[in-house]
Design goal:
Helices cover 25% and strands 26% of the residues. The protein has seven helices and 19 strands. Helix 1 links the parallel strand 1 and strand 2. Helix 1 runs parallel beside helix 2 and helix 4 packs parallel to helix 5. The structure holds flavin-adenine dinucleotide.
Length: 300
């Protein structure tokens, strides 16, 4: 890669809560950090961010702008809207290239780029995602409290999620989407009064982004106002290309968010299944503290 004129202390890939929390620590520690953000967070279609104290219900875009407004005070921070397309560790520096033509060099790299969703191929799913189809009851259970809700899954996930939803509604249904109902799950459902269907889902229906009916392959039409299902996830290609050790879709990190590669940290959704804004922010904070300590005592 070309050698640019300046060397940053830290390059942060991604501009969500993990990134901006790290940037706050780095700015306050007078470290030169650049946030490179493609601007497409997974929660963008959601109406509001929940469970982040002092910010209940703010829009995802509003959350970022409030965070960035706080960061304006610190002159060593900057942000660019761009997509990082290549990363390499050469001559003891992280080198990055963006689709928009930036050539960047930094002593440390923080991956805070979230994760990639793999949506199910169910007609009506895409337009209802984050509106009436949700993945996380902590994030959206309150908004559908006391409504008829369903969850999709089988086995251990079903035994966990269906009873969990009873925190928010007495009318919970399990849809196994073509999987057989095992004896252990049947026992849990019966004990808790949770109805179920095993026929595959073939369509989600309702006006606009609302859910009124879940249509099953056997012709059953189930009246529900919200559906909780967890789409699959995979790591971003950039993460795969670095060859980082993964557990499932997630980058393996230590207690201070260090990865297996030199001077490379990762924070937020790209490292964990506990995907919450406040958790991402906490991880960003830990990563930044670790980066600052590492750069302080490095001999370069
Ligand atoms: C629909 C939905 C609703 C949710 N609601 C809530 C909620 O109410 N409360 C809650 O606590 N959590 C909620 N979450 C989870 C929460 O959004 C995430 O846990 C959190 O945003 C993770 O932060 P992050 O910084 O790791 O990643 P993200 O917020 O996903 O940010 C990653 C950023 O990196 C950028 N990026 C990716 N690749 C590149 C690249 N190559 N170059 C440059 N930039 C790149 C992306 O465009 C994105 O802007 C929700 C999630 C979803 C999907």
């Amino acid at each position: 890669m070309m050698q640019g004129p300046e060397v940053l202390d830290v390059l942060i890939v991604g501009g969500g809560p993990a990134s901006l929390s790290a940037a706050l620590y780095l700015g306050r520690a007078r470290r030169r950090a650049l946030v490179v953000d493609a601007g497409s967070p997974r929660h963008a279609p959601s109406a509001g961010v929940h469970n982040f104290l002092t910010r209940e219900g703010v829009t995802p875009a509003g959350f970022r702008e409030l965070a960035w407004a706080d960061l304006q005070e610190f002159p060593t921070l900057s942000r660019v809207e761009a997509r990082v397309t290549a990363l390499a560790f050469e001559n003891d520096l992280w080198q990055a290239r963006t689709a928009q033509g930036h050539e960047l060099r930094a002593r440390a790299l923080l991956l805070a780029m979230g994760t990639v969703e793999i949506p199910p191929e169910i007609p009506g799913y895409a337009e209802r995602w984050a509106k009436s189809v949700h993945h996380c009851p902590f994030c959206h259970g309150w908004e559908v409290r006391d409504m008829p809700v369903a969850t999709v899954g089988h086995g251990e996930f079903a035994r966990h999620m269906a009873p969990m939803l009873q925190n928010w509604s007495d009318d919970v249904m399990l849809l196994t989407h073509g999987e057989p109902l095992d004896a252990e799950t049947r026992q849990v459902l019966e004990a808790r009064g949770i109805a179920h269907h095993t026929s595959p889902i073939v369509a989600l229906e309702g006006p606009g982004s609302a859910l009124h009916t879940i249509v099953l392959q056997d012709g059953t039409r189930v009246a529900r106002r919200a559906l909780f299902m967890k789409p699959g996830q995979r790591p971003h290609d950039l993460i795969r290309e670095l060859g980082l050790p993964l557990t499932g879709a997630f980058v393996e990190v230590d207690a201070m968010q260090r990865t297996a590669l030199p001077l490379l940290w990762a924070a937020g959704d790209c490292t964990t299944g506990f995907q919450q804004v406040i958790e991402a922010a906490a991880q960003g904070a830990r990563a930044a503290a670790s980066i600052i300590m590492t750069l302080t005592f490095s001999t370069d």
